[in-house]
Amino acid sequence: MTEPFTLRIVVRGYELDTQGHLNQAVYLQYCEHLRWESMRAAGISQAALIDTGVGPAALEQTMRFHRELRGGDEVDVTCSWVWGEGKTFRMEQEIRRADGVLACEVSCVAGLLDLEKRKLLPNPAEYFAKLAEHPEIMGL
């Protein structure tokens, strides 16, 4: 298995809830950002993907919170692509404070949607592999 794609993000004050914790929706935004950044690093831009008539579609997301995050915390967000058979794939993600403490785990089941037919493509890994310049970043 390839090392997960990782970026460091600093928690900004405007992302906090009334208790001073990172708002739960922002955890998902961080993870979504990492998914697109990992595709970009693999050589697949958002525009190029959409130009081919397809786009990723999140079907299910599960979040597990372990520790709170506060403004100014530096976090490492990861994205590991997990491929299987059929129309769906998974992205396993972690958000860890810079000191290594796990703050949140996010698991996402997704597919690659034909934007005209509004149907999932049968083999998303094969499709992504053809587009990617560096498929290993996506575990392909």
From TrEMBL:
EC number assigned by the record: 3.1.2.-
GO molecular function, one term: hydrolase activity
Pfam families, per database record: 4HBT_2 (PF13279)
Keywords of the record: Hydrolase
Protein name: Thioesterase family protein
